[in-house]
Fold this sequence. Notes:
There is one protein chain. By secondary structure, the chain is α/β, with parallel strands linked by helices. It has one domain. Helix content is 49%, strand content 14%. It has a ten-stranded mixed beta sheet with strand order 3-4-5-2-1-6-9-8-10-7, with helices on both faces. Strand 4 (132-138) and strand 5 (144-149) form a beta hairpin. Helix 1 crosses helix 6 (227-247). The longest helix has 43 residues, at 9-51. The radius of gyration is 23 Å and the shape is globular. The relative contact order is 0.13.
Amino acid sequence: MSTGLHYPWDLVVLVIEVCLFVYFLFVNGYYVFTAVLALLNLPLFMRLHRVDPLRRSYSSLDTPVSMIVPAHNEEEVIVKTVRSLLAMEYPTFEVIVVNDGSEDTTLEKLGKEFSLEPYPEAYRVSIPTEEVREIYRSAQFPELIVIDKVNGGKADALNAGLNVARYPLVLSGDADSYYHSSTLQWMTEPFQKDGRTMVVGGAIAVGNDCIPESFGDPFNPSLPKNMLPRFQALEYLRAFLSNRLGWAPLNALGIVSGACGLWRKDLLVEAGGYRRDTVWEDMEMTLRAHHMMRRKGRVYRVSFTPYPVCWTMVPNTLSQLYTQRVLWHRHLSECMSIHRRLLFGGGALGWMTLPYLVFFEWLAPLVVAFGITFGIIGIVFGFLDWYSQLILLGLVLTLAILISFVAILLDEISFTAYRLRDIWNLFLAAFLENFGYRQFVTFASLMGFINWAMRTPHRGRRPPGIFVKPYPKT
Length: 474
């Protein structure tokens, strides 16, 4: 409630307060809506998982898969990642590691560990990329291929992998991630059930303290010991289990993570491959696929599997987290600009997902910054009182914590990405993250927005900015 001012200024203050409160209600309303959808869809996945936890093995119906893993200076983790991929329980697959101009010993470690030999494979240039120096194949594992190329970024490395991939389904992966042996079994399921499926996203968990030290060691998922990765583990639960699982049944999933996405290869090639002038590639490729299929009038599905199929390494330091979140928001900004014609363009994607992404993700740092500034100025100059602001703050914190609790409970009643004994530590993290962590992430996101608006170069390239040409109309 405002005090100390008179009409018309008290009316202006009231309007601002009401707008901020309504914005807050809509944000949390979206979270509640997707969480309810996720809760309604979980029983089906749980029944399938309990009846046949490993699904069927070695079926003639399984479509062969090419797994592409870009690697740039990944000498510390590349061998573990490749070992986890080679251990897939799946009849026909290949692993394509793309050494994207690494300056460390990534290529040497791969060569020594897997006995790489030059492989005179014809390099079919379906999508232009930076120069490919050499192609190798493992003498121990014929399904392992390594491409050595000039550095061009992750999107360019994925495109090089597409040029070599032999199979109709393509899994995009990360070199710093560890994959469950049943990943391909779970993720190919939607393709077998529905021929309209063009891509399947997989649930990702934080694995900083549970990646095996060597191949053959038992994999025991556990919550990170460090509080910073623990906060991120909670974010991943909210994003994948209660958010993306909610959007998927509506065919409205706006992003398939670059760490674990299974695509139809022909659609990636038809779309021109991954775009190389954006900071990252995953959200842009997902929205472009939506856009392309709608423009061409095709019926399609974007599916999601809630099984925790991939454990990834997340930042351990504030500086690493800051850089990551700046780039995340910068990529979100690029995508909202490039694909702005999808907004209110029809279907749940245009009327629900895109408005959420634009108003409650992309513009959220600006709204939060304005709200904090307005609150401080109002208290200092006396036209806002402490009591009303504390009540509002308490309501915000309560709903934020409850939404986190829902995500934790969804995990515990379903696939338990983390052990039951970790649940209390997750509850504690859900409370503590509101005192510093969320504010830090919001600030990093704000800087990402500013960097995008100013078109600040990244890795020597100036990414698309505010006036980028939008994708063609649907």
